[in-house]
Amino acid sequence: MPIPLFNSVASWFLKKRINQIELFKKYPNEVQQEVLRKLLVYNINTEFGGKYDFKSIKNYKDFSNRVESVSYEDISEDIERVRKGEQNIFWNTPIKWFAKSSGTTNAKSKFIPISYESLDDCHYKAGKDMLSLYFNNNEDSQLLAGKCLRLGGSREIYEDNMSYYGDLSAIMIDNLPFWAELSSTPSQRTSLIPEWEEKVKAIIKESINQKVTSFAGVPSWMMVLLNTVLKETKKDNILEVWENSEVYFHGGVNFEPYRSLYKKMFPSQKFKYYEIYNASEGFFAIQDQNDSSELLLMLDYGIFYEFIPVNNTNKIIPLGEVELGINYAIVITTNSGLWRYKIGDTIKFTSLKPYRIKVTGRTKHFINAFGEELIVENAEVALAKAAEKNNCKIKDYTAAPVYMSSKKSGGHEWLIEFSEEPKDLDKFTKTLDENLKKINSDYEAKRYKDSTMKIPKVIKARPGLFYDWLSSKKKLGGQNKIPRLSNSRDYLEELKSLN
Fold first, then answer.
1. Could you give the CA distance from residue 252 to residue 309 in angstroms, rounded to a whole number?
2. What angle do CA 436, 442, 448 make, to 5 degrees?
């Protein structure tokens, strides 16, 4: 089919979905209750269905009273059973794909189950909705007259039992429907090259002469790719390379530290940015308005939502009871067999008609500036091992990201107060970095050949620095703690100014 005709037909088809989106915006709670009912009925005969007697659950109250909320550690043994070949434990159809991510306290990686239903009814449906909402807001768009430059991960095979694991993006690319393959570049084969530098070269070779109209990927990785494109082509900005570029669909990390860099890459007032909120566990929300920082919560993807007010963690409420401006931790029940699963993200509702949100952070202190998902538990273990190896003792610490510039990789900056200092700070830093790689697979990937993140920078804090900082904040006392990890540099800069 000629590309212009494909653009016309596809854009017409995508706009038809808007009617269904308007329906769940008008009847959000009814749609959510129907999602829950279908999930329960579909899984009556699973092991979980028997354990919690899904057959007798008649309403949300029954469900919330009977099924306990869980974290990854609570269900990791059941997930391992499925990875080793057992089925029908928490989902009714066979699961052979697992999205690998970091963030667990007791292992280097989490393995999130991905069912065929979640691929079709959640992730791929969201891909189409992303385009539907964009076309609805931009009637004259020629997005599908060209291709989307996508940047995904690599795939690994868990060889013992023919189950597969890898980045969620790689799993999606490996299973792409034909319509997505037609409108994307590079090819599936190139997208799944595991070695980063080889992949970048192959992407540029394959895509440089394509008509690219959009981009999709994590900002940190995409920035590395686009900087390489400019270096190879000797151009000043990406619009000189792909003049028909319209929009960048981004997610995975906070975009604000990258916004100015991307505006230099795409120096046009017409170029648009659309944020998405997806994770290994599901696709949750999409920016549905031009030039907005709010995301529309997508309610018909086979995900049932509940929320825990951060200031009242003993309470779990359904969508119909949320309020504006309150920080909530998200609990999801999904069409991959996650039942009342706490994903660790926090959000605030900016609108209730329709339900729009902003992502506010994590339930734990963390740094996720580049997709590294470094949590406090990772930091504590790596620091302890580095201290032991270097015969030193750590009293207090904090860390924050050093964001990427147009020509430099980003990284982490650590401010550490030692009660017994290491003899060689460079050696300590190297040991810390090595242990973070061993503990956290996402950190390890971003540190690969310094492509996205360079080796951390460690600064020695003067004795009593953290005590003085707490004192200046009038926060001395047992209930007040040093913020160990932060996506913002605010704490770190304050402490450095006192150092």
1. 23
2. 80
